[in-house]
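FAQ: What does a ligand-bound record look like?

Like this one, built around flavin-adenine dinucleotide:
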Amino acid sequence: MAKRLNFDLNDEHRATEALVREFAAREVAPHIRENDASKTFDRNILRGMAELGILGLAVPERYGGAGLDYIALGLASEELEYVDTSLRVILSVHAGLNSLSILAWGTEAQKEKFLRPQAEGTAIGTYGLTEPDAGSDAVGIRSTARRDGDSYILSGEKHWISLAEIADNFLVIAWTDPDKRARRDHSGLSAFLVERDSDGFESGDMTHKWGIRAGNTGWFRMHDVRVPRENRLGEEGEGFRIAMFALDQGRYTVAAGATGLIRACRDQSVRWARSRTTFGQEIGRHQLVKQMIAGMERDYEVSRLLWLRAGEMKNRGRRNTRETSLAKWVSTVASERAASDAIQIHGAYGYSDEYPVGRFWRNSKGAVIYEGTREIHTLMQADYALGYRRDRPTRVVLPPFRGSGSDDFPEGV
Ligand SMILES: Cc1cc2nc3c(=O)[nH]c(=O)nc-3n(C[C@H](O)[C@H](O)[C@H](O)COP(=O)(O)OP(=O)(O)OC[C@H]3O[C@@H](n4cnc5c(N)ncnc54)[C@H](O)[C@@H]3O)c2cc1C
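The answer part, i.e. the structure of the complex:
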């Protein structure tokens, strides 16, 4: 039979969507306003996510995960961010940036030591690239890893790190070749799995953050932290490639999450537009309000199609840096617009914490900055279109989804 394009979710997808939606509505939604106001990260949420298998959703069962596909990971991201961005951020750094990098680039020993507990939810992972002097310009980082016998000695500081005070394992990018650093040659960077309980490791919160306030964001410093060679991820010199590979997976969850945030803005705005009246009719009847609601509807559907395409390419083992960047760019910019319009539709009520739309707007802005700013994705998309950028093959790729006993993704597609 000829292969056909299929837009339908399968039973596993629908079950994942329902499970995560129900969990977020039951366990998180009732407390989110209070936790956001008091800047409280609720560790019980991690326990709940672990129990349901959400923390290891797209990790194969043989490494302690749920063995679902990358579409299921996107659906979970969308449902989590529908309730609050802080929930989706957990999935982005723990599952997207960290665990999937270990799945693809790790040795069997690393998968046993780091991936299995992370998939089971008994350990939490995150990702440390950004530093006080370098964010978009990853080659500008200063952290170093000096070889010393069978170990490396890591020094440096990372900031704006999600789950910095919560995570057990940190995927850290640092320079191993000082000469290449001087020439800004990224093949002098390497990746390491650094454990919190290492001597010389210190972390703290960034308490002045005004968005994603129910989430944890902070910094960590490494003062001559000794990391065994077995904790180096990939080969020496592959750190930049691993950092970019990780972003392909993290950005994917950000894109799906931002799609959920657009949906939350639309639903909240529709509720308000159907109940508030001005000039003798529901405000939803006014054309200019309709225009804002229609924009949210458009952006939700477009964003969803874009992340689904990227997820399907991941399932099939196809390179998707370009498509993932497009999905992340379009959905995050649209989510900021949707949140701003949601406030507008609520009038003065939106300009307070009485309704969630102000929180939606504060939360939306972060994703326009992290995992590639709006400007970096704009440049990437222009460069792909102009032919200035082409993705070269990497030694390692994200394992394609082989299906749970079905012939959904036969070899060779
Ligand atoms: C809530 C939150 C959570 C985060 N979590 C993590 C995490 O877990 N791990 C991690 O490693 N990092 C994390 N980050 C950091 C984030 O990835 C960086 O902030 C981001 O990469 C941008 O870097 P920067 O802040 O240093 O800005 P800069 O790189 O200094 O950019 C400043 C401005 O200049 C623009 N700009 C820079 N270069 C160019 C260019 N070539 N052309 C045009 N414009 C340009 C940018 O778009 C931006 O508008 C997080 C950030 C936030 C806000």
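Follow-up question: can I read anything off the structure? Yes, for example: The chain has a mean pLDDT of 96.
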